[in-house]
Amino acid sequence: MNEDILYSPEEIAQKLKIAKGTVYEMIKRRDLEAHHIGRHIRISDTQFENYLLKCKGYENIYEADINRENDETVANVGPICIHVNTELEGHVKISINPENIILSKGTFISSARNIYKGIVTQIIDEGSSAITVVVDIGLSIKSLITSKSLNEMNIEKGTELYVVFKTMSVKVYR
User: Fold this and answer.
1) Distance (Å, rounded) from C-alpha 30 to C-alpha 147?
2) Alpha-carbon distance 113 to 134, whole Å?
3) How far is 43 from 62, CA to CA, in rounded Å?
4) How far apart are CA 52 and CA 64, in angstroms?
5) Coil, strand, or helix at residue 125?
6) Could you read off the pLDDT of 94-121 as tens digits, one per residue?
7) How confident is the model at residue 1 (pLDDT cuts 50, 70, 90)?
8) Residue-wise pLDDT tens digits, 123-158
9) Is 127 left (phi over 0), alpha (psi -120 to 50) or beta?
10) In the 8-state DSSP scheme, what is residue 98?
């Protein structure tokens, strides 16, 4: 079993060169995930890494296992097989930028290898006409679209959509 290192908020503050109070605020705002163990707060190495990735603009971050099947490389994220392009093997993390995900009302012929049917579970207005649409495809995935697209496609909570993205849009790393 992989053992995850646990850090105190003070140790995270030292790593980020910020005040301890700022770390507590980040946890309170849910910018940084943390474990509450009794009266103590601990941040795992994985939670810290995910925070750093989100700061770099990465989203849709998942733990996955790489498999090679019929000359194709897939990352298994629970029941979902995502086509990826990587030389890495074994347990990895993958991420997909929400701007690289297309939402569609139906299927169409394209070069995209990743096409999944799902249901809209959440719509978040990000301001400046940007809308985050969360779709459950067996896992929650976020797509960023314009408010004009949201309205023209008549997307609302419960709408059935296809989530489409290219293999090359999936970042794979350790």
Assistant:
1) 25
2) 20
3) 18
4) 19
5) strand
6) 999 999 999 999 999 999 999 999 999 9
7) very low
8) 999 878 899 999 999 999 999 999 999 999 999 999
9) left
10) G
Q: So what's the pLDDT on residue 3? A: 64
Lowest mean pLDDT among 1-5, 25-29, 35-39: 1-5
Please give the mean pLDDT across all residues of the chain.
93
Instruction: Write the CA distances from 95 to 40, 76, 151, integer angstroms.
Output: 30, 13, 27
Which residue type, as a one-letter code, is found at position 45? D
Q: Are 97 and 57 in contact (CB under 8 A)?
A: yes
Judged by DSSP in three states, 117 sits in strand
Residues facing residue 37 across a β-bridge = 40
Rounded Cα distance between 150 and 153, Å, is: 5
Cα 95 to Cα 101: distance, rounded to the nearest angstrom: 11
Task: Give the integer Cα–Cα distance in Å for 162 and 99.
Answer: 15
Tokens of 19: 């005040």
162: which 2 tokens? 């296809």
Give the residue, 47 or 103, on which the prediction is more confident. Answer: 103
Q: From CA 105, how far away is CA 118, in angstroms rounded?
A: 10
β-partners of residue 76 are 65, 81
